[in-house]
Design goal:
GO terms for molecular function: hydrolase activity. Keywords: Hydrolase. By secondary structure, the protein is of the alpha/beta class. The chain has one domain: Alpha/Beta hydrolase fold, catalytic domain (Rossmann fold), CATH 3.40.50.1820. The protein contains 11 helices and 8 strands. An 8-stranded mixed beta sheet has the order 1-2-4-3-5-6-7-8, sandwiched between helices. Helix 9 links the parallel strand 7 and strand 8. Helix 1 packs across helix 11, helix 2 crosses helix 3 and helix 4 runs antiparallel to helix 7. It starts with 8 loop residues before the first strand and ends with a helix. The model has no long low-confidence stretch (mean pLDDT about 95).
Length: about 260
């Protein structure tokens, strides 16, 4: 898999990669990344579906405008939904996807939350907030600690791509997104119990922050929830384990899309 930049169009004020025809699949990336983080999923899903993968506000080619709360990101991506579809999110994108399902239920036929936090421990909450508070919005943060959390010490094309994206971020857009992410502890139990659609909660076995226990807990609360824990995987599932992710998403899409 290559992680080269793809052409974009403007959709609802966001820069977005679009591919394929058919029922809609919306892909939402995490903090500090960009739509190309979904390259493997775009290729696999666009053979059967219309795939839309935006740069979140303040990332890639999308401006950061009024994004000081999670709901602002949700509202921005909701404008891309011209029909109901499957909404897939990774990390912060998963939080947005779950918020979207709760606030715009008529536009969501199914949801996949990859590497989503849910009820962080006190120590994890303190750590992520400390990282957020260290960002000044003016200088590019050293990506080394982030890359170690995501990939360990191993070098790979995926790690190199993420390093390039992190170093190329707009510092204020990154600060704003990380601040929102650090304050977000996942969906409420009530919103999960109210999910009316098939919901997949997927994470890596070696994920220290968006843990397997979190995904299993969310799946237990959602009426049509299922959990999938990928052996040997950590945080960057869509990039490091694309075959497993693609198979799971294709199964979910076949279940919930016309």
């Amino acid at each position: 898999m290559t992680w080269t930049t793809r052409p974009r169009c403007n959709l609802g004020g966001l820069a977005a990669i679009t591919a394929g025809e058919g029922p809609l699949v919306l892909l939402l990336h995490g903090v500090g990344l960009r739509a190309e983080a979904w390259n493997a999923q775009i290729d696999a899903l666009s053979a059967r579906y219309r795939v839309v993968a935006p740069d979140l506000p303040g990332h890639g080619g999308s401006p950061a405008v009024g994004v000081e709360r999670l709901g602002a990101y949700t509202d921005a991506v909701a404008r891309l939904l011209d029909e109901p579809g499957l909404v897939v999110g990774h990390s912060m994108g998963a939080l947005i996807a779950l918020d979207l399902a709760g606030r715009y239920p008529d536009m969501v036929d199914g949801i996949a939350a990859l590497n989503s936090v849910f009820r962080r421990s006190d120590s994890a909450r303190a750590a992520v907030r400390a990282r957020a508070e260290a960002l000044d919005g003016q200088t590019i943060a050293d990506p080394t600690p982030t890359l170690k959390r995501w990939f360990g010490e191993a070098m790979s094309p995926e790690r190199a791509a993420c390093e390039s994206w992190l170093r190329g971020n707009d510092p204020e857009g990154y600060r704003a997104a990380y601040a929102v992410f650090s304050r977000s502890d996942g969906p409420s139990s009530a919103s999960l119990r109210a999910l009316p659609v098939p919901a997949l909660f997927m994470t890596g076995e070696a994920e220290p922050n968006s843990t397997p226990a979190m995904s299993r807990a969310m799946a237990e609360l959602a009426p049509q929830g299922q959990a999938l824990v990928v052996p040997g995987a950590a945080h960057m599932l869509p990039m490091t384990h694309p075959d497993v992710v693609n198979a799971a998403l294709l199964d979910l899409a076949a279940d919930c899309l016309p």
